[in-house]
Design goal:
By secondary structure, the protein is an alpha+beta fold. The chain has a single domain (10-314), classed as L-amino peptidase D-ALA esterase/amidase. 20% of the residues lie in helices and 23% in strands. The chain contains four helices and 14 strands. A hairpin with a 4-residue loop joins strand 1 (16-23) and strand 2. It is globular.
Length: 326
């Protein structure tokens, strides 16, 4: 039976580090996923109001076959600046796609909306995201905090405080799969009993409170949504150490979106920009057959659902944003 990795974080996937930087005054932040070496990546976008960078470069039919980092950021479109700062710092380190005598780091990014969470956004012509991007890159490590940190710093999850979450699984054949999410959905992560996570059945080792089975649950229960296009968004990265090509990574990203559907209702609304990246470090060599790819995608979806619940469980109250545990 698959087991959680030793950290129960995406960094249980060998070859990955994660760094976070937060601005407590603005109540926002940036998260960087940094592979030890450039790796295969893909993305799947299903929300109605996405904010992204370098998405199409990862399409299977396009030339570039490796990325150097992925950036998740708060700040709506302002947050895309973080990826430029990460790109520049990586170029200074000599990492990137070789173009003649130059290197061009490939740094896809996605942003969430946290501009109306009560933090001070009076930053004038210099939003903090470039500085936060550099700080998050420099902080990259295998251990990192969850909850009110990085891209999850200013996140909300329906009526609750959202946050940064992560989870992992080691499959029976030794393949490792992990997920990282900045959970900021329009929809709710809780059933209509107000206490049970939609992802409760996937929980391992009381990782989000050891919820008992729900008292009642109705998939048809009315859910209040924030009817402001682009005003939320859940952004995530799933990863494996299997050697996937770009098309296989895209399939894993698509399958992993089901993890959001298992943990959030409603999801992929016109008001969200839900985006899932998939990374494959290739530490486990050898071709991946379709049946094995299906298992990786299924595990990625389960990890992502668990990561969403862990994000909200780990977050604490800030101002009017109430944490699940107060």
């Amino acid at each position: 039976m698959p087991q959680t990795g030793p950290r129960n974080l995406i960094t249980d996937v060998p070859g990955l580090k994660v760094g976070n930087a937060s601005d407590t005054r603005a109540i926002t932040g940036v998260t960087v996923v940094l592979p030890d070496a450039a790796c295969t990546a893909a993305a799947d976008v299903r929300g109605g109001g996405p904010g992204t960078r370098e998405i199409h470069v990862m399409d299977p039919e396009n030339l570039v076959d490796r990325i150097d980092a992925i950036v998740l950021s708060g700040g709506s479109a302002f947050g895309l600046d973080a990826a430029g700062a990460v790109m520049n710092r990586l170029a200074h380190r000599g990492r990137g796609f070789a173009v003649g005598s130059h290197v061009v780091p490939i740094v896809p990014a996605a942003i969430l909306f946290d501009l109306m969470n009560g933090g001070s956004k009076d930053w004038g012509e210099e939003p903090p995201y470039r500085d936060l991007g550099r700080a998050a890159l420099d902080a990259a490590d295998v251990d990192f905090a969850l909850g009110n940190v990085g891209a999850g710093m200013g996140a909300t999850a329906g009526p609750l405080k959202g946050g940064l979450g992560s989870a992992s699984l080691i499959m029976d054949d030794g393949t490792t799969v992990g997920a990282l999410v900045a959970a900021n959905p329009t929809g709710s992560v809780l059933m209509d009993d107000g206490r049970t996570f939609w992802a409760w059945a996937l929980e391992r080792d009381a990782e989000f409170g050891g919820n008992p089975p729900p008292v009642r649950a109705s998939a048809d229960a009315a859910v209040a949504v924030n009817a402001m296009p682009g005003a939320n968004t859940t952004i995530a990265v799933v990863a494996t150490d299997a050697a996937l090509d770009k098309g296989q990574a895209r399939r894993v990203a698509m399958m992993a979106q089901d993890g959001l559907a298992r943990a959030i209702r409603p999801i992929h609304t016109p008001f969200d920009g839900d985006t899932v990246f998939a990374l494959a470090t290739g530490r486990r060599t050898g071709p991946v057959a379709p049946a094995a790819l299906s298992q990786i995608g299924s595990a990625a979806a389960d990890c992502l659902a668990r990561a969403v619940a862990r994000a909200v469980w780990s977050a604490t109250s800030i101002g009017q944003m109430k944490g699940y545990r107060g």
